[in-house]
Fold these 2 entries.
Entry 1:
Amino acid sequence: MTEPLPKPNRKNPLVRTRQPLLPPASRSHKAHGLTLAAAAGRFMLQCCGECGQYTYPAREACPNCLSADLPFKDAPTGGVLLSETRIEVTGDPYFREHMPWRTGLVRLDCGPSAVVHLHGDCGGPGSQLSLSLQLDRVGQAVLFARPVSETPDMEDDPQWREMTADPKYRRVLITDGRSPVAVALAIALKKAGAAKVFVGVADRWKPFEEQKALEAIEGVEIVDLDLTSERSIQELAMDIGAKVEILINTADHVRPTHLFNAGAINTAREAMDHTAMGLMRLAQAFGPVMRSRGADGKTGAVAWVNVLSVHGLSNVPQFGVHSAAHAACLSLSQWLRSELRQGGVRVINAFTGPLDTEWFQTVPPPKVAPKVLADAIMDGLKRGLEDIYVGDVAKDIEARLFDNPKAVEREVGQ
Amino acid sequence: MILSRARQSYDGVVLAVPVTVPYQRYSIETAHWWMGKALRALAEGAGVSHRDFDGFSVSSFTMGPDSAIALTQHFGLTPRHLDHVPMGGASGIVSIRRAARAVQACDADIVACVAADTNQVDTFRKTLANFSRFAQDASYPYGAGGPNASFALIARHYMDTFGATREDFGKLCVAQRDNALKNPHALMKKPLTLEQYLSARPIAEPFHLFDCVMPCAGAEAFLVMREETAASLGLPFVRLLSVIERHNAFPGDPVQVRGGWVIDRDELYGMADVKPDDMDFVQTYDDYAVISMMQFEDLGFCAKGEGPDFVRQHTFTIDGSFPHNTSGGQLSVGQAGAAGGHLGITEAMRQLLGVAGGTQVEGAKLGLVSGFGMINYDRGLASAAAILARA
Amino acid sequence: MNGDILATFAGALASGQIRVVDLTHTLSPDFPVIVMPPELGQSAPFRMERISRYDAAGPAWYWNNLSFGEHTGTHFDAPIHWYTGRDLPLNSVDTLPPSDMIAPACVIDCSAEAAKDADFLLTVADVAKWEKKHGRIPPRSWVLLRTDWSKKTGAAYANLLADGAHTPGPDAEVMRFLVGEREIIGFGTETIGTDAGQAGHFSPPYPAHHYLHGAGRYGLQCLANLDQLPASGAVIVSAPLKIQNGSGSPLRVLALVQERSTG
């Protein structure tokens, strides 16, 4: 039975904040096939294109037939526990802080045996288990086994929490309260047990409809935050930087224009200023302190979520500036990811199709309801994903990009 | 159908000059320093210059960035048979087998087999973190327990399947500590009781402190040559009756319950024309007692699954019913990296040469040495064994 | 005319006989800017990004990069700002005659009315009332509408409701009158624009902009400290940045006020 996570006490100012340590990071090139799957929450192992046998660990040739055709394919997630141990002693500094650590040897339903991280609620040898690929604190893919059926408080298992970014008892900053997704996010975060939700709002002198709805949620605090102002961001970071364990960047700036319009450059500059430059300003102000707090107790800094348009992956002419701005954000997020990884803080990109909001009024359905996006982000945090595709449009583009990015380029917006 | 023939005998191959460079828990020296000590002791023991060694076979985890060829220049050797055997606990016996064929075919006259490793403060952790691609990808990131964690999974499964208990493992460990107290080279100097064994702090269940070897620095070495060479130098020697190696045996076993010895043991005993019962002592590779138990089974001293019972039926001290790891084994002498696989060989040579001193088994004429190594991912891949006889 | 006038002026400044009142708000990122419907182009707010501050980017010096729209903070509107003034000569801030940058001001105090009604509109009747008390507005004078709006901050200052901004300003008739009948040099307010918040619904829309700039006159907005000025007699110094073809610019607006003799 998982011990429920106790509500964390206020920080003891006399105690040093622990520096984040990371689990072993080295992996072979091939092993990143698992990273790709884990990032999107899929369970994929190498499966021989010639003889059909699954194989693990990742390798360059099928041990059954020596075929080099070993793509990663979705695999059944079941397995049986063959053996287990509880590691009490290690020379590795990260794991030393997390001892004891339960691991097991699992016979996967698809064939191979695998060493796995073992959830505390898994039964002993002979138990049926459910496997997943998770990203650990250093962002590398690992196999994690959980019981087949849910158990009470299983999300609080200390090993599982190292693989996830569960909002429970964590403090969250939503950067743009004017975003149509802000209210839904705040509600979802409180439901997920977040201790506090800061909601940034620029130009408080401009009224906005959602203010009342946000203020009505217990534990929500509206704070001044203008993503286009370095000073505004830094001042907020000075106040609450050390209290943000999850940052959800909802910045967006949709202003349709035509590439050849005289004012398109201004539109682009504004969009870039709100989104790409905003992300960079946020990273400069909040990144260092979040990175330093990756091991600050059981509810230390854990995730940075960017809400991005799926059109950042392939430009849609109708929203050309928007697409370009989000492409820039995607690139910055990769940069940010490499920096935050050093503190064990994961960067999650939620790629969404057009939201069911004013700026996408002319776009035909299917569109994404803010609540659906909020729920998908919660799911991503709780499962520790890195790439989330929200809504039918985003999922369609993801699949089609995987298949043929040129076709997406030619067909999009037609 | 692949045409296969029975392998040729190892007639006329002998081993001489067992060398142990006394171990240290930690050393500020490099592996090369320990190798140099071992080579010098071999040369002095053989009464020749080290430049006369025309064969060199080396095993080490910590000699990087050097390879065997670099070591020839480092030590001033000019060999015509040069081997690097990076097979951990199996490398000692594997180097015997290869050296034996080299001297038998007169590709070389004297092969110096040397295993040495240093143990600086962070050596062991670094070795584990970079041990192999599969370990790096698929076992070390899982708690970084190293071999303790990997063998704990094998041990736990063995206990569940065959009914072995911690007391059974403890009996082997305690017996080896008794033996070690008679070996001046052993790093463990204090007696160990079963109670102490059982109540020691856990390391990786089911393993506790005394289930695990202590990494240290040290070197082991010996010479392989033809009998005529030994005679010409006036060196006492032991005979090599048979030797086997096998790697990645039974890859389909979901969890390791046996090693490659099972495949080759009939040939091992057949070539030597002896039976398991004929052995006066056995030196198993004891990185963990459960692996020794597995070797009792796989080398034919009892059937698969009877290991626990075999342990209960016997005593394993030097004067016991089944003299085993008479030096104290790695568990009580220390594990000097790759030299751990040579420890049983030098000890067996001393037993058969009658120079084992305090650990001498009365009238030992025939002995079996076994090697095991390289937990590349979830199991030890290399297994090897040799039967040695008093000349 | 001789040099004595300026010497006298300098002496009066030094002795405090002439007081200098700063009518300018501090340029800061928090100061509201005009909000246009989002699908239209927007004025960039004032932003300041550090180049260096005695640090690795400049070890001994402190300086910043600034960015802002022409119409941010306390700012000046040139005739070219509005379509009605687009074809006039000397209609941009770089060509503006320097002599126009110093001119007397009449201050019409409507602070009591504006306190009661955010949508208060200055009318010809209000001007007539003022002239009755203080005399006719001289040609080439600034008319400054005092509302004390500059004492508000943030949301109260912008006062944006669902139907737009609600701030005081002139009606269309009074602008026609001031520009046509009184030949004022310009019109100044304490609010974000020279026009009232709801002036888009007037006829013509934005009459202050329409008439002022159509006649080659100027606007000043986001003024402060109008409560420190006499109803008449102050001289305004308002020199916008010399921006090529610029439609306006933030600037420092100073008022020179002669202290009344207490003796």
Note: Residues 13-122+217-237 of chain B form a domain with the Peroxisomal Thiolase; Chain A, domain 1 fold (CATH 3.40.47.10).
Entry 2:
Amino acid sequence: MKNRIIPLKNPAYFISHAAVGGHEEGKGPLGRCFDLIEPDDKFGMDTWEHAEGEIGRLALGFALKKAGLASMDLRFLFAGDLQNQCVASSGGLYTFGIPYIGLYGACSTCTEALMCLSVFLSESGGESIGAAVTTSHNCAAERQFRTPIEYGGQRSPTAQWTATGGGAISLSARKRESIVPAAITAVMPSKVIDGAISDATNMGAAMAPAAAESILHYFAESCEDISSFDAIVTGDLGRVGSELLLSLLSEGGIDISKIHFDCGNLLYDFDLQDVHSGGSGCGCSASVLSAFFVPKLFSGEYKRLLFLSTGALMSPSSVQQGDHIFGVAPAIKIERTDLC
Amino acid sequence: MHTNKNYKVLVEKMSPKSPVLKNCVRAFFFGGLVCFLGQWLSYLFIWLGASREDSLSFVSISLIFTAALLTGLGFFDRIARFAGAGTLVPVTGFANSVVSPAIDTKSEGFILGVGAKIFTVAGPVIVYGILSGMLYGIIYFIYLLLTGGV
């Protein structure tokens, strides 16, 4: 397939970004980069599910405030989370009154949301502004996908830790003079890839083939030089998945080991935090993008990066019925348009 | 790209295994510690005037209460992460497996939440415990019939 990459006619410019995390994220190496670290993992709410909604509400609030925007300035809101029917996003964000499109891409939701939003903005042009919000909550996810929160068991070394956190990013169709021009310039949807993994405690292995397929395809179709990228960032492959990705890519004749980052490996301190193979959850890549990578683009340290949040598509029923866990890895290219 | 079969081999190779020996040693000592505690509790109850048989029931009640309390206070999962089967196999594990879903599902109401979901983890133990008890009873009954015990 030769037309999977969609170059945007009008780049979608970053105007603001915000990351919110829980106390475990605060203890990680990126803790200081978050706009808010809330020590109370319930975020002052009555349930874990409401707490996840509150993360989205807070993150979008910060992003709007930083850009000096009111919610009525936004034309679109793309949002998603890990709960059934994305109730955290709808419940947490309805008060903003922004036209809303809910997405579910498991842990790939952040890239999915930015991909869709940037295409909407590119097509609508003019003064259009939109936001992408993605959240996950460790306790809400444990309850939905695994065992009760206080259940005492041991986890597999390949298991990952669902992040309690989220990110909000606002994009504009028009370049603003007051803000350095970092923009999404191309997007590429993912194929659904079956790595024949059905072990729900090894999501990195389930997602690595999708990330490898997307990266190999991206460079084959675009004919771009890997060395022109400062970073190729995957969402939440963790340690196991990252190793698998590099191994799969080397078989495909590509070496990205020097510029590969995985948000799941960046969010926590492996020596001090009991997160096994690393962070996961759609809030992981969303918060790391907002807290770590976008600031690096704004500062000029990075000029061009390829960002792929990785998603493991499964439900508690599909896992119990022994189905394979499918992987997706949509990609967006983010560039400093003035420097590239 | 990899075929699925090759990929499975690669995954197998690159995924760290659970530290079985370490887990077994920890489970042995923690499980032993729980039993040691139980034994001393039993002596305590006998000293307080309970019969030997009653003291064993009091031991179970005490251990279940302690595990439930530690679960409610949020400590049990941290201990269990370290102790593994050492806290899972004794009655403490069963207490935790009933209390933890109860805490989780309280937000969904007492009927459809706690009432319906309290045995989501412990359910299989109860179902197959009763089933194997019934099977054993039937086998024992047939044995008695054959040996003229009935």
Note: Chain A has a mean pLDDT of 95.
